[in-house]
Design brief:
The chain has 293 residues and is mainly alpha-helical. It has one domain: Farnesyl Diphosphate Synthase, CATH 1.10.600.10. Helices cover 73% and strands 1% of the residues. Helix 3 packs antiparallel against helix 4 and helix 12 runs antiparallel to helix 13. The longest helix has 34 residues. The model has no long low-confidence stretch (mean pLDDT 94). Bound molecules: geranylgeranyl diphosphate (GRG). Geranylgeranyl diphosphate binds next to helix 4, helix 8 and helix 9.
C-alpha cells in the first residue's frame, strides 16, 4: 500500500519534472546536462515531502507540483556543484558518472547554475499565474532562505572548512542542519504553505521536519560508513571517513543507530495530531530511517 502510493507520487513528480524540462533551446549541451542530472536516479524525497505536506493540511497535489519540481531542481544543482573537483571531487553520483565527468567542469558549473535559476523561475512564474500568489511567494521565501547564504551554502562552507579536522557534535549538527536539513524542512513547510496551513500547523510541521532532517543526516552517515566498510573490508566506524567527521565518528555506530530510531519516533509522534491524514508521512518517515541508499 505505502509502496504503491510512493511509486504513484514519484511518477507524478517525474512527469512534472519532464514537462518543466521539456524546454529545448540553444545550446543543446546545456539542456542535456541539466536533464542528465535531474534524471540520473534520485529518490525524489524532497518533492514527495512537499506534495505530501500539502495534502496533509488539505491542499491538492496539482498546486504543490511546480514548487516540488523547483525544489528538486535546486537540490540537483547542489549535488552537481558538491561533486565538482573544487568541492568533493566525486566521479560517481547515484551510481552514474557525475555531471562534470560527462560534460566537463565548466558545463557542469553552468548546468548547476541553470538549475538553481530555473527553480526560482518556475516559482516566480507560478506566483505570477496564480490567484494564491501570496502563498507561493511565502513558499519561495522558505526555499530561498534554506538554499542560500544562511542555509545550504553556509553548511557547505562549514563542511569545506572542516575537512581533515575533527569537529564536535555541535559543529557537526550546525553543518548538517544547514547543508541538508534546511532544504528538507523548506520542502515540508513550502508544501504546507501551498496547502493553506495556519501558523500553529506550520509550527508543528517545523518540529516534525527538524526531527526528520536530523534522522536523515545521521542515517546518511551510517550508510556512508557501511558503504566504505564494505569496500575496504574493515571497521572504520570510529575513524574520520574520507577526511570528514561524521555522526558515526563522533557518536559511534551504536549510538547513531539509536539516535535515528529516537528521532524517527519523535517525528512520527507529531504526525499523530493529524489522524488518518498523517499515515502516509508516518510510513515515509519510517522508510527514510530504514532506507539502504
Ligand atoms: C554546493 C551549495 C552546495 C551545496 C551542496 C546538499 C549538499 C550541499 C551536498 C550533498 C552532499 C551529501 C551527499 C550530503 C549527504 C546528504 C544528502 C543531501 C544526500 C543526497 O540527498 P538524497 O539522498 O539524494 O535525497 P538523491 O540522489 O536521492 O536525490
Amino acid at each position: 500500500m505505502f509502496d504503491d502510493i510512493l511509486r504513484e507520487k514519484i511518477e507524478y513528480i517525474n512527469k512534472g519534472l519532464n514537462e518543466f524540462l521539456s524546454l529545448t533551446d540553444r545550446p543543446e549541451v546545456l539542456f542535456e546536462a541539466m536533464k542528465y542530472s535531474v534524471f540520473a536516479g534520485g529518490k525524489r524525497l524532497r518533492p514527495v515531502l512537499c506534495i505530501s505536506a500539502c495534502e496533509l493540511v488539505g491542499g491538492n497535489k496539482e498546486d504543490a507540483l511546480p514548487v516540488a519540481c523547483a525544489i528538486e531542481f535546486i537540490h540537483t544543482y547542489s549535488l552537481i556543484h558538491d561533486d565538482l573537483p573544487a568541492m568533493d571531487n566525486d566521479d560517481l553520483r547515484r551510481g552514474k558518472p557525475t555531471n562534470h565527468k560527462v560534460y566537463g567542469e565548466a558545463i557542469a558549473i553552468l548546468a548547476g547554475d541553470a538549475l538553481l535559476n530555473y527553480g526560482f523561475e518556475v516559482l516566480i512564474q507560478q506566483a505570477l499565474n496564480s490567484n494564491k500568489s501570496q502563498n507561493i511567494l511565502k513558499a519561495a521565501d522558505e526555499i530561498a532562505r534554506a538554499a542560500g547564504c544562511r542555509g545550504m551554502i553556509a553548511g557547505q562552507v562549514v563542511d569545506l572548512l572542516s575537512e581533515n579536522k575533527e569537529i564536535g557534535e555541535y559543529d557537526l549538527k550546525f553543518m548538517h542542519d544547514h547543508k541538508t536539513g534546511a532544504l528538507i524542512k523548506a520542502s515540508i513547510l513550502a508544501g504546507a504553505i501551498i496547502g493553506g496551513a495556519d501558523a500553529a500547523t506550520l509550527k508543528k510541521l517545523s518540529s516534525y521536519a527538524e526531527y526528520l532532517g536530523f534522522a536523515f543526516q545521521v542515517k546518511d552517515d551510517i550508510l556512508d560508513v557501511q558503504g566504505d566498510e564494505a569496500k575496504l573490508g574493515k571497521d572504520i566506524g570510529s575513524d574520520i571517513a574520507n577526511g570528514k567527521s561524521t555522526f558515526v565518528s563522533v557518536l559511534g555506530l551504536q549510538r547513531s543507530v539509536e539516535l535515528v530510531n529516537e528521532l524517527t519516533e519523535k517525528a512520527i509522534s507529531i504526525l499523530n495530531d493529524f489522524g488518518n491524514k498523517g499515515e502516509f508521512l508516518k510510513s515515509l518517515t519510517k522508510y527514510m530511517a530504514e532506507r539502504d541508499s
